[in-house]
């Protein structure tokens, strides 16, 4: 499960969990009054209600009859609006750090150069896994630690830390050149890029479904490719597709979602996983939809906010293959805590990452009946067609 309450707790005490590079206040003689705090809190709730996708860490204190405003944010317009409002009744010293940080110069973009990039809540290998990004994914770089770890934002807006060895930093011109280059997408579940157009040659890198690489040429049944860090390799043509042709030929349907979901059968559960190497519940649904040309938000508690609600009562006859089922608990105040997501297959069955990717049933007489999730079912959302608001079709958004 991708538990939102745990994620919120982690974020509350950290930069997206506990960054080692943080601003330090000078000696504070007088803390800002409550009205200032309320203004800052209102801006935070308005512009950065989800700390997984925005940074707005602002504080203020008084010193020598001045209001010192400190912290950091990647929301420049929100920061400027806040400072302007505070200026109305205060003499302001603006010490807010804006992201991307100036030290990055013009290299504020990056490309994932490994098959599956592990993204963590804190800038260390022992940090909890937050998400993953596949080879060829363009990211925005916001900050760099002294140890080289990078704070990045992925195309689904998720913000967390990555080892510098997984990312090649580039500038805007390089990003534009890559976006317009001829590329392939790897379509087999697993495979490799070879050093020569020969399956018996050395391996340059492993690959998983969804990896994207730039093509240089075609030779002897292979695509000659170049990686973001300028390594060169060869990928078998029968294991990949020209990206633009793949994208133009996509037509996400109930049948295609069903077929893609079952390709992941047996893939192990991995908290934070979003690839064929391992998935958590929302990473599974995200991967299925991505391979059908649709980018979903990262977590179950975010995915439940998109699409069209098609059921709340467990009336399975109203569901269609590909609908997302959400599970959790209803609080006394009427709100919900979403902790799990699955995909409906039809005939009372759904597929989800629970221990491993498996198929379960809502039918109490079925051998694969899932009593636990049956009891905590909350609602079903439809993404295809009528529910596309809030998601990113790759055809129109041109992410890659």
From TrEMBL:
Entry keyword annotation includes Translocase: no
Keywords: Hydrolase, Protease, Signal, Thiol protease
InterPro entries linked to this entry: NLP_P60_dom (IPR000064), Papain-like_cys_pep_sf (IPR038765), Peptidase_C40 (IPR051202), SH3_16 (IPR041382)
PROSITE patterns: NLPC_P60
First and last residue of the signal peptide: 1-17
Pfam short name (any one): NLPC_P60
Residues annotated as domain NlpC/P60: 250-384
Entry's family note: Belongs to the peptidase C40 family.
The protein's name in its UniProt record: C40 family peptidase
């Amino acid at each position: 499960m991708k538990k939102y309450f745990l994620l919120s707790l982690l974020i509350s005490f950290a930069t997206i969990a506990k960054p080692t590079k943080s601003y330090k206040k000078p000696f504070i003689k007088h803390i800002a009054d409550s009205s200032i705090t309320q203004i800052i809190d209102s801006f935070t709730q308005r512009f950065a209600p989800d700390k997984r996708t925005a940074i707005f860490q602002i504080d203020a204190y008084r010193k020598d009859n001045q209001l010192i405003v400190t912290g950091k944010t990647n929301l420049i317009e929100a920061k400027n609006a806040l400072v302007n409002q505070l200026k109305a009744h205060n003499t302001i010293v603006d010490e807010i750090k804006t992201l991307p940080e100036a030290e990055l110069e013009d290299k504020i973009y990056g490309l994932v150069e490994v098959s599956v990039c592990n993204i963590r809540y804190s800038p260390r290998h022992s940090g909890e896994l937050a998400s993953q990004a596949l080879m060829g994914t363009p990211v925005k770089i916001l900050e760099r630690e002294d140890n080289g770890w990078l704070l990045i934002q992925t195309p689904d807006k998720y913000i967390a830390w990555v080892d510098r060895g997984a990312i090649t930093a580039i500038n805007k011109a390089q990003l534009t050149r890559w976006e317009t280059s001829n590329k392939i997408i790897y379509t087999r579940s697993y495979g490799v890029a070879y050093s020569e157009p020969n399956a018996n040659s050395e391996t340059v890198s492993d690959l998983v479904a969804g990896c994207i690489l730039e093509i240089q040429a075609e030779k002897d049944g292979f695509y000659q490719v170049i990686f973001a860090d300028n390594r060169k390799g060869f990928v078998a043509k029968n294991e990949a597709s020209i990206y633009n042709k793949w994208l133009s030929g996509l037509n996400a349907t109930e049948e295609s979602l069903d077929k893609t979901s079952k390709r992941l059968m047996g893939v192990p559960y991995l908290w934070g996983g979003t690839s064929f190497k391992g998935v958590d519940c929302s990473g599974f649904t995200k991967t299925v939809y991505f391979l059908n040309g649709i980018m979903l938000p990262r977590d179950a508690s975010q995915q439940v906010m998109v699409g069209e609600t098609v059921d709340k009562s467990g009336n399975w006859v109203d569901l269609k293959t590909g609908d997302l089922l959400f599970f959790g608990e209803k609080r006394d105040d009427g709100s919900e805590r979403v902790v799990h997501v699955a995909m409906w297959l039809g005939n009372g069955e759904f597929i989800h990452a629970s221990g491993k990717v498996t198929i379960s049933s809502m039918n109490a007489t079925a051998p694969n009946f899932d009593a636990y999730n049956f009891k905590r079912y909350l609602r079903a959302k439809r993404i295809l067609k009528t529910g596309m608001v809030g998601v990113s079709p790759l055809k129109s958004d041109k992410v890659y």
